[in-house]
């Protein structure tokens, strides 16, 4: 019976030693306590942000890009994880940057439709800078041509989303309205005593 207790005691001691060694190995393998604070790279140029992240032992990845006329191309707009977050070395930091070039859109056929419909289509494509130029035509408010930087565009042309698009719009035929009163009518005299 005494050997059973000795064997049970040795198994308990062996389990504790193995558990303790496993914890030491896990701490070493996961670099427990070896952390980095994520630096703030928001509002920095892309190249500078990448240099800072690499110097800290982090990996920067462009996750998304957006275009904004008011921000310099390549500027970091967002980062995930946020600045100050505690992470391990080698962690990926996802960046949203301002696109280096504007978003391009493909124009559908905009000729032979009404001005109102053409404006609606362009605004749906995020083109807000629309200029109208009236040209002689027998149809009023009919789009006859689409131009970008003076060049005539066909359906399928690609332009930047913020482009200035010029629509050539028909001014229509002016209708002459005939006078309803003829100059040949006889004047009628009115007797004031009748009233």
What keywords describe this structure?
3-stranded mixed β-sheet, 30% strand, 195 residues, 4-stranded mixed β-sheet, Trypsin Inhibitor V, Chain A, transmembrane, 3 helices, transmembrane helix, PASTA_dom, alpha+beta, PASTA domain-containing protein, single chain
Please characterize this protein's 3D structure.
With 195 residues, the chain is α+β, with helices and mostly antiparallel strands. The chain has helices spanning 2-29, 46-55, 115-124, and strands at 35-37, 59-66, 76-80, 86-88, 92-98, 104-106, 129-135, 140-148, 151-152, 158-160, 164-171. Helix content is 25%, strand content 30%. The protein contains three helices and eleven strands, in the order αβαβββββαβββββ. 12% of the residues are buried. Strands 7-11-8-9 form a four-stranded mixed beta sheet. The radius of gyration is 38 Å and the shape is rod-shaped. Among the domains are: 34-101, Trypsin Inhibitor V, Chain A; 104-171, 2-Layer Sandwich (Trypsin Inhibitor V, Chain A).
Topology of this protein?
Layout: H1 2-29, E1 35-37, H2 46-55, E2 59-66, E3 76-80, E4 86-88, E5 92-98, E6 104-106, H3 115-124, E7 129-135, E8 140-148, E9 151-152, E10 158-160, E11 164-171
Parallel strand pairs: 2-5, 7-11
Antiparallel strand pairs: 1-4, 3-5, 6-10, 8-9, 8-11
Organism: Duncaniella freteri
Domain PASTA: 34-99, 101-171
Pfam family, one: PASTA
């Amino acid at each position: 019976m005494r050997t059973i207790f000795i064997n049970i005691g040795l198994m308990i001691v062996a389990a504790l030693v193995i558990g303790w060694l496993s914890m030491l190995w896990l701490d070493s393998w996961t670099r427990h306590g070896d952390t980095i604070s994520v630096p703030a790279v928001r509002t920095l140029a892309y190249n500078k942000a990448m240099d800072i992240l690499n110097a800290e032992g982090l990996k920067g990845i462009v996750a998304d890009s957006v275009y904004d006329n008011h921000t310099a191309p390549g500027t970091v707009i967002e980062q995930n994880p946020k600045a100050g977050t505690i992470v391990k070395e080698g962690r990926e930091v996802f960046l949203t940057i301002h696109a280096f070039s504007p978003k391009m859109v493909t124009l559908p056929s905009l000729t032979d439709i009404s001005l109102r419909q053409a404006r609606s289509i362009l605004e749906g494509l995020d083109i807000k800078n629309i200029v109208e130029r009236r040209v002689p035509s027998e149809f009023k408010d009919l789009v006859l041509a689409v131009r970008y930087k003076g060049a005539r565009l066909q359906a399928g042309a690609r332009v930047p989303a913020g482009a200035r698009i010029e629509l050539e719009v028909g001014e229509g035929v002016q209708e002459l309205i005939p006078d309803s009163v003829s100059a040949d009518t006889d004047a009628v005299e009115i007797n004031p005593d009748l009233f």
